[in-house]
Amino acid sequence: MTALDASTEPAPFGDLLIHWDRRVLQPRMWTTAQSYWAAALAPHCPDGPILELFCGAGQIGLLAASLTGRALVQVDQDPVAGSFAQRNAAAAGLPSDVRVGSVTEALEPDERFGLIVIDPPWVPSADVEQFPDDPVLAIDGGLDGSDKVVLGLGVALRHLHPEGHAIVQVGHAAQTELVQALLKGLGGDQLPWTVREVRDYSPGGLLVHVGPESTSAS
């Protein structure tokens, strides 16, 4: 069975309708905030496509793309999620290059993006059973929930334009502190980016804006 064989009632997500089923993470309405924030930053970002890592059914990146008119590159390791992302892009009439595979292998070394959204699984492995309706692959972030946050941010920083911006979704305040620590630990004072703002959407999660040290964008 493919994702196209198992579609359910489309879920509203901003102005889009997103096809999904229980093999992928159900679209959460609070995460439209990630799309809207990315769209607000887009005028301050270098030209080019948006990159979305851990895209799932594709809704967050697709809404950002629809709001900005930018093309999109989406990555997820789950073939079912990739099928839905492709279907949802086609249904919305939006150009998206959906790549199925590890986020560490899906991009060419020289690819650079001015705007990146990162939607990693961030639930601790011991807690995934609290969410029986969600597929484990889509929410399991490892021992303390931070494995994919670390992985995604590392990939993003290798492909983020020096004047680019990224919006990272995390689960709790300690993971926002981890993002800041990673920015310092990966590059010391050499990296051009810092955590510019954190927005709390509890009980859903938090969004972290990583951007250049000196800019008026927020």
Automatic annotation (TrEMBL):
Pfam families linked to this entry: MTS
Family matches, as InterPro entries: DNA_methylase_N6_adenine_CS, N5-glutamine_MTase, SAM-dependent_MTases_sf, Small_mtfrase_dom
Keyword hit for Hydrolase: no
CDD domains, per database record: AdoMet_MTases (cd02440)
Coiled coil: none
Keywords attached to this entry: Methyltransferase, Transferase
Protein name: Methyltransferase
